[in-house]
Amino acid sequence: MKTKHAFLVTSLMVAVSLTTGCTTKHWYNAFQSNMETTCRLRPADAEQCLSRINRMSYPDYEKARTGTK
Prior knowledge:
Layout: H1 2-20, H2 24-40, H3 46-51, H4 58-66
Helix pairs in contact: 1-2
């Protein structure tokens, strides 16, 4: 049930982003937030799950994604 809820939230975020002309930065931040929420819905292994989330800042992510320095 929680996985279904997380999927619905993600789907809604994608739909809203597509209709509002969302930037890559907004996508990145929304995805990070959704991953944190998903981890917190799993209390048994929430800390381990949260530790696997990429904590890279958006500017660093963008540099890595585009290969710029």
